[in-house]
């Protein structure tokens, strides 16, 4: 009996010691995690982005790393124009987050970007990242139409269902489109339909559409807003959850054109000579974690078929991958200036 009691005491002592060791180990891990989470304390990440909607994701990164984040909101065309005009060695931001990939490709050619060839980036399909590591995509933007049903009814206009419908004379003065030199989505639509139709037929098409457009907005948001207000019947827009919500609130209709859906990768890049390059690279690694990609898809309001990372689910917005136009993404960068020059000559002072 005495031996049994001693054995029980020994067993309890061993269990208690093991528990203490386990607690010590857990505390050590917790302390290390806490220290790691403050690796960029005192550092600031300057981000130029297309929308303030991304703040929750950056706030999460800030909480984990200790880095402060400062935002500037700007379209991709505006970023490119400002960077090219600025002759100082120090860029205006560390990270460029969002916008049509054509601007990022042009920025690479203009030697404005820094490389990031981290292991996380290399997990992305080569279709959605620069082979040299200068940019990557966070998802796809798809182009479509938004229509004000009341304006159509009041003016006895038919409902458009395709891109080809935009050439109909009945829509003269009723189409709102942003300048493709400013809006990455507009450029994606122009380039996508040129890819689909071929150069000669494509430009003939855009010449007919141009006859129906009174002017081209210098703001990417104008087509959605001006169609919502009833100033125009039809707008060329990025189709996402926000577009469908606005349609529901304003009695509009969002349309994936029946003759194909143009698309463009949305870029992410680090600026050359940026003081916060290390923090920017850390954010990209953070962004590419599956849980954060899923959160990003919700913020962007993306359909699953707009997401570049396999296995990450987005929303169901009725987009079919088979409806996406077959495009040569390389053309977005190599053709950009030539396309914009020809576009400017075609539209004149509109």
From TrEMBL:
Coiled coil: none annotated. Keywords: Signal. This is ABC transporter substrate-binding protein. It comes from Limosilactobacillus panis. InterPro entries: Ferric-bd (IPR026045). Residues 1-28 form the signal peptide. Pfam families: SBP_bac_6.
């Amino acid at each position: 009996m005495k031996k049994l009691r001693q054995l029980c005491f020994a067993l309890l002592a061993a269990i208690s010691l093991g528990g203490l060791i386990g607690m010590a180990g857990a505390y050590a891990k917790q302390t290390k995690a806490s220290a790691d989470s403050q690796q960029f304390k005192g550092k600031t990440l300057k981000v130029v982005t297309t929308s303030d909607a991304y703040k929750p994701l950056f706030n999460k990164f800030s909480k984990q790393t200790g880095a402060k984040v400062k935002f500037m909101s700007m379209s991709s065309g505006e970023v490119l124009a400002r960077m090219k005009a600025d002759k100082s060695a120090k860029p205006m931001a560390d990270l460029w987050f969002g916008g049509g990939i054509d601007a990022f490709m042009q920025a690479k050619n203009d030697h404005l970007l820094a490389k990031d060839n981290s292991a996380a980036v290399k997990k992305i399909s080569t279709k959605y990242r620069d082979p040299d590591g200068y940019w990557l995509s966070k998802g796809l933007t798809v182009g479509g139409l938004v229509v004000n049903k009341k304006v159509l009814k009041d003016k006895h206009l038919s409902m458009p269902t395709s891109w080809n419908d935009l050439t109909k004379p009945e829509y003269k003065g009723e189409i709102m489109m942003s300048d493709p030199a400013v809006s990455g989505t507009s450029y994606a639509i122009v380039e996508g339909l040129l890819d689909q139709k071929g150069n000669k037929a494509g430009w003939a098409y855009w010449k007919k559409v141009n006859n129906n457009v009174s002017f081209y907005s210098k703001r990417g948001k104008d087509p959605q807003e001006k169609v919502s207000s009833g100033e125009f019947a039809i707008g060329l827009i990025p189709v996402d959850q926000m577009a469908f919500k606005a349609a529901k609130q304003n009695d509009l209709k969002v349309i994936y054109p029946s003759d194909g859906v143009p698309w463009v990768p949305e870029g992410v890049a680090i600026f050359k000579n940026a003081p916060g390059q290390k923090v920017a690279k850390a954010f990209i690694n953070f962004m590419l974690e599956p849980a954060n990609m899923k959160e990003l898809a919700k913020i962007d309001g993306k359909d699953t078929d707009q997401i570049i990372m396999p296995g990450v689910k987005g929303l169901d917005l009725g987009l079919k991958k088979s409806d996406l136009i077959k495009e040569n993404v390389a053309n977005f960068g190599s053709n950009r200036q030539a396309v914009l020059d020809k576009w400017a000559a075609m539209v004149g002072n509109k």
